[in-house]
Every structure is written in structure tokens, then in C-alpha cells.
Amino acid sequence: MKNLATLAITLASLLLITSTTVLYSEGWRIGVESNEQGQNQTVISKTGMLAVRSIPDGAKVYLDSKLITATDDTITSLTPKDYTLRIEHEGFEPWEKTMTVYPELVTDITAVLVMQSPRLEPLTNTDVKAFALSSNQNNIAFLTKNHKEPGVWILPLSGSPLNIFKNGTKLLIADNEFGTPSMGEKIWWSPNDKEILVQMNKSGYLLYELSNQNSTNLIPISITNVQSVFDRWQSEWKINFLQSKIDSLSKDQNIPSWLVETAVNNDSTWSPDDSKFFVTQPNKDDPTKLDVIVYNSETPLPVAEKRIYNPLTISDPANTIIQWYSDSYHLIVLEKSSDESSPRSYTLSIIRIDGSNRTTIYTADLASNQAYPTPSGDKIIVLTSLKENSQTNLYAISLR
């Protein structure tokens, strides 16, 4: 009988240990909570995880003010609830956000950290007059006449070092007897990157066809009714891209009809990964302001993410530019100063699509209201000059 009792106890212990191990591996935890009467009681509950990444990595991770680990890492066995997540990296602005942990799920978050003192690095020294980012976001076209070969030049943003000494720039369209684009005032790419439009003066434009280009000596089409070009580009973009995306979203997701109408009838700006877009609409309380509305069409929707966000309200629409950051989860905000004594002063900042962690990147004089991120997101390209009344050139603001 004694041996049977010992065997029974052993088997029961093994069963308990095995069951506990299985439950633990599946995320179950035993804890103590207070009930409504204030009495402590033992509870068994599911836990969740928090996968924390940062760019750059190696940052300290604090959860509810307690140092837990360093990025990149996954924090396990967390009781489902809201936590204050704070990420700190020496030399970078701190990052903080309220994160919700759900039972049996992994909540992912990537913190884009910004240097406290971003570097400004020159990319050209040829007196750039205007520039534009290609629709595929891989190239910048710029106008320059102060070069051995004046015309339209290309600056690749990926696949080569991005500095003044070695940046892969090459001539795209040369000045010739048919047109001198280097003397232009502004430049645009078509949505399919097959055409470039150069504004020469208030009413004169040159349109260049880039398809099957095997020479830099191109003959432009002279344009006087520029709106017809923009209308054609918009129509082609809607047919080739927008309509199919909206039809798919309307069929597969419960996207609000008002948002569909706004996206189709007004300009919708799509993220680099084509899974999100934002539109602007008048603020209900103050119609002079604009609300930025972001729609996330990712399927499945990541844990803790929402379909629709209103990350910010633009107080001065005439002097504010919003565009996507490279990771498709952040927006770049470029605001012109309202101070008449500093007409060229701009503030550049970045904000997550949920409205959290708006961080100022750079405040200084710029020669245009443009700021384009590189595909890797480590730099933002602007047009400026380091000295008053000196030539303007392309510069890279290094975020890390």
C-alpha cells in the first residue's frame, strides 16, 4: 500500500508539473488579484508579448518606468493591459507610447529614433535651382546650369553612397537648341515616372518624354496649358492605380463611403508600400484648419493598429506640407514659419500615423517647401544654402 501511495503521489506530481509546463509554455500565468471586496485571490490568466524594435537598435526599453531590456527584443509573459513604453538611446530623442498587450497575441512596435543633433551633409555643389522626387521614390531630378553639362540631373537615392564625393549623379536631359531646362524654375515627375515637366516661366513649360530613352539630347514639347498635363496625369493615375485600389478596399473592407468619396474626388496620398493613404478634410470645429485622415488597409491588420487615424490637424494649410516617411508608418510634416522676418524658415518633424511621438527633426532656412526621405529612411533631402545669398544645393539631413 505504501508503494502504491508513493507511486500515486509521484504520478500526480508528474502530471502537475507537465500540466504546469504546458500551461506556462502556452502563456498562462498564476497571479494574485484583489476582488471587489478587497480580498486577494489566486487567478490563472493568459499573457501576451511585446516585440520592441528601434531604428537604430540597442536602445534601452522601459516598461512602466522599469528598465526591462534593450532593442531589438520580445518581452514575454505580460499581463494583458496598457503599458507605458519608453525607449531611450544615447544621442537620440526619447520615444514614448502607450502600448496595449492582448492575451495570446504579440504586439509589434518599431520606434524611429531621431538624432538630437542631426547632421547636414552636402550632396551637390552645382547651384541647384529646383528638384523633385520620382513617384517610385528612388530618384531625385534636379535642375542646374552651373555644371559641365547643364540640364536635368538625376540623384539616385538607393544602391550607392549618398554624399557629395560619391553619389551616382548622372545627366538625364541636356540643354540643347530645343530647350534649356537648366534655366527652369520648377520640375515635376509624372505619376508613372515616364515624363518630366519643367516650368520655364509663369506661362511656359517644357514636357519631356523619358520612355525608351537612349540619349540625353531630348526634344521637348512646349506647353502653355499646363493644367491639361496635370489633369491627364491625374486621370491616368486614377485609372491605372487608384480605382483598382478603392474597388478592392470597398469590396474587402468596410471602408466608410465618405472616405472613399474623399479619396476619389480629392488628392489621396499613398504610402510607399501602397497599403495606406491619407486625405485632408476641413476640421468640424474650425473649417480654416484641415484634419489629416489616415486609412490603413493592411490585411490582416497588425495587433493594436486601427483602420482609421486622425494623427494631426493642420492649423496653417497654406504653409504646411504633409507626406509619407519611408516606413509607411510615419508622416513628415514641413511647416513654414509665420514670422515675416524669417520668410524662409521651416520646421521639419516626423509623427507616427496614430498621432504619437511627433518629433522635431530640423529647424532652419530652406529654399523650397520640399523634404524627401531616402528609401532607407536614414536621411531627408532638402534644398538650402549654408550662407546668405549663396548658391543653393541639395543637402541630406541625417537622422541617424
Keywords:
Immunoglobulin-like, alpha+beta, four-stranded antiparallel β-sheet, globular, 3 helices, 400 residues, 29 strands, 3 domains
Q: Quick recap of the structure?
A:
With 400 residues, this protein is an alpha+beta fold.
How many structural domains in the coordinates? 3
Distance between the termini: 73 Å
The helix content is 10-25%
Count of individual helical segments: 3
Q: Helix- and strand-based class?
A: alpha+beta
What does this structure look like?
Pfam families: PEGA. InterPro entries: 6-blade_b-propeller_TolB-like, PEGA. This is PEGA domain-containing protein. Residues 48-114 form the PEGA domain. By secondary structure, this protein is an alpha+beta fold. The chain folds into three domains: 41-113, Immunoglobulin-like (Sandwich); 119-223; 254-365, no CATH class. The chain is 15% helix and 41% strand. It has three helices and 29 strands. The protein has helices spanning 2-25, 226-252, 257-265, and strands at residues 28-34, 40-46, 48-55, 60-63, 66-70, 73-78, 82-88, 95-100, 106-112, 119-122, 128-133, 139-144, 151-156, 170-174, 186-189, 195-199, 205-209, 221-223, 269-270, 276-282, 290-296, 308-314, 320-324, 330-336, 345-352, 359-365, 372-373, 379-384, 393-398. It has a four-stranded antiparallel beta sheet, with no helix packed on it. Helix 2 packs antiparallel against helix 3. It starts with a helix and ends with a strand.
Produce the secondary structure layout.
Layout: H1 2-25, E1 28-34, E2 40-46, E3 48-55, E4 60-63, E5 66-70, E6 73-78, E7 82-88, E8 95-100, E9 106-112, E10 119-122, E11 128-133, E12 139-144, E13 151-156, E14 170-174, E15 186-189, E16 195-199, E17 205-209, E18 221-223, H2 226-252, H3 257-265, E19 269-270, E20 276-282, E21 290-296, E22 308-314, E23 320-324, E24 330-336, E25 345-352, E26 359-365, E27 372-373, E28 379-384, E29 393-398
Parallel strand pairs: 3-9
Antiparallel strand pairs: 1-2, 3-6, 4-5, 4-7, 7-8, 10-29, 11-12, 12-13, 13-14, 15-16, 16-17, 17-18, 19-20, 20-21, 21-22, 23-24, 24-25, 25-26, 27-28, 28-29
